[in-house]
Amino acid sequence: MTSRYSEFFHTTGALGRLVEALNKLPGVGPKTAQRLAYYLIRTDDADARGLALAIIDIRDRITYCSICQNITEADPCRFCTDENRDSSRICVVEEPLDVIAMERTGSYKGTYHVLHGVLSPLDNIGPENLQINELVTRLKENTVTEIILATNPSVEGETTAMYIRDLCGSMVSSITRLARGLPVGGDLEYADDVTLIRAMEGRQEF
Length: 206
Known about the structure:
Strands 4-3-5-6-7 form a five-stranded mixed β-sheet. The chain contains nine helices and seven strands; from the N terminus they run H-H-H-H-E-E-H-E-H-E-H-E-H-E-H-E. It is 47% helix and 13% strand.
């Protein structure tokens, strides 16, 4: 943010704090943060307060599933408690949004495990920063026949997949990787349904 804008928003107190908070959101730059702030100023009082309450509510009610680490309002989550799902298969994904993408296809009926990120030494993100130990615990305590590695086809995603393969290879009979129908460097959540279905159907031993 330029010094001219910084000085103005600093002197306006509440407005400056709002712009600064919005600017911290992913994908929201200084200009967008300013436009959002002024939109909230002009919006209906009930809508503005409704947004504030929704943010507070999600912070109070959303938690992580103690089994798969997905976000949920009830622990365990609906995927882990669904008796119609195949609990012997675990699809490992990077983020909760990837679970939504996989469910959108309707082709997968197993369970999930959310890592909440990928290994990235440059960003100081190691195995201890991800939900990998929780995955190992699941494998030790349950009968799992297949792990499907559905991390994104990026350098970090591949590194994470290989680490999990090496760590868990002796604990499960089959470890597969989504087929290369997914573009290199692409994100799972942005893939179309047909691509995801073909990637799932064409997964290979990893």
